[in-house]
Amino acid sequence: MKNKTNHHILIGVLVGLFIGLYIKFNPSVIGSDLIIYVADLIADIFISSLKMVLIPVIFFSISVGIANLSSHKQSSRIWFLTFLFFFISMTLAIILGLGSMNLFEPGRGMSLSLFSEQLNNFHSSSIALPVFIKQFLSGIFVNPLKAMAEGNILGVITFSMFVGLAIAKSGKEFFDIKKIFSSLLGITMKIVSWIVRFSPYGISALIIKLVVQQSPELFITLSKFIMVIIGTTLFHGIVILPLMLYFFTKINLFVLWRGAREAIMTAFATSSSSATIPVTLRVVEKNLKVNSDIAGFVIPIGATMNMDGTALYEASAALFVANLSGIDLGASQQIIIFCAAMIGAIGAPGIPSAGMVTMAMVLQSVGLPLEALAILLPIDRLLDTFRTAVNVEGDIVVSLIVQKLIRRN
Ligand code: ASP
Q1: Is the beta carbon of 384 within 6 A of some atom in ligand 1?
Q2: How far apart are CA 12 and CA 14, in angstroms?
Q3: Entry pTM
Q4: Into how many domains does the chain fold?
Q5: How distant, in Å, are the alpha carbons of 81, 98, 209, 260, 279 from that of 245?
Q6: 160 lines ligand 1 (CB under 6 A)
Q7: What is the CATH number of the domain that holds 75?
Q8: What value, to the nearest 5°, has the Cα angle with vertex 22 and ends 21 and 23?
Q9: Which of 310, 377, 379, 385 to probe ligand 1 with, by most ligand atoms within 8 A of CB?
Q10: Is 354 in the pocket of ligand 1 (CB under 6 A)?
Q11: Domain membership of residue 89 as a residue range
Q12: Which of 86, 123, 135, 147 is nearest to 308 (CA)?
């Protein structure tokens, strides 16, 4: 059953690409409107069903995971290792991004005025770093019911952590609640398995929409930048992360891909790490055999905080904008970009194009023109696919490393 779904997802991607490209190049073909309408409908149902289970999955997996972890002797070590490897993988991603931008220098020789049409239609909304940090922190301690209803993932994570800790610290007193929560998590994951069965159609529909909606003009002008970003993002996903994984766990790229592809392709098609959480959790537990306590902790938190692809992109795009503006950024300014990209990636929620919002802060950190966002936005739907896939892969890799480094008693 599992392999069949994997297979169907691959077919779904190819069929989506084929239909999307066919309609793109033959827009007046009979039935194209109907196909786009049906694709839109299926894509909506797929994303909505993932969102339907998202909050229960996060709440039950974190609270049960932490309740079990805290009774574990190595719980502080798990917390430490998780955040350490989030930091290491994002650091490597940013260094890769900055290094390749310095090497290939896309945008050098072009000028911002080339994009006057985009710039004229753009109204910038800036967020300074202090405001951003305040917004981020005030999203953490909130009414849990409000956070759940509004899909405020960070708020739900915080509340779930407290619930998990409270259960753990009370010893046997709330043991029954833990058992009930575990069962509810099992029920939710059962629903996830049905959604995963539907995912080949959802992914196919999302890819049709993606291909049909792209406008090629800006892509040609920005092709060098796009190629450098896709190339480095793939390099991080295919070389750096697997090397890191192999170094600590001896698990190779093929085993990783075979186990994780459902989640990676769902992330690619949805451009949302958060919406992918239910699938990611399922693949790390079922296919890659990560213990559910560790997975339940690392995956939901990683989906909102550990974003290698986003960190790489934000740092690279800032250098690209500097090139377009004819500004030479020295080492000290690139260090500032490094820090801003890290904060931006941690702060960006796992939803489509969230990185564009925190991108404003990265540009501002070294005084680059915010208007440049007008150039980046139209190409973001495409770039977001690759970076979200790598964001999710990073979470999976960290969960495997943490599991390996914990000596289970
Ligand atoms: N779409 C990304 C994610 O969900 C965030 C981003 O825009 O970079 O992981």
Answers
A1: yes
A2: 6
A3: 0.89
A4: 1
A5: 14, 22, 34, 13, 20
A6: no
A7: 1.10.3860
A8: 95
A9: 310
A10: yes
A11: 2-407
A12: 86
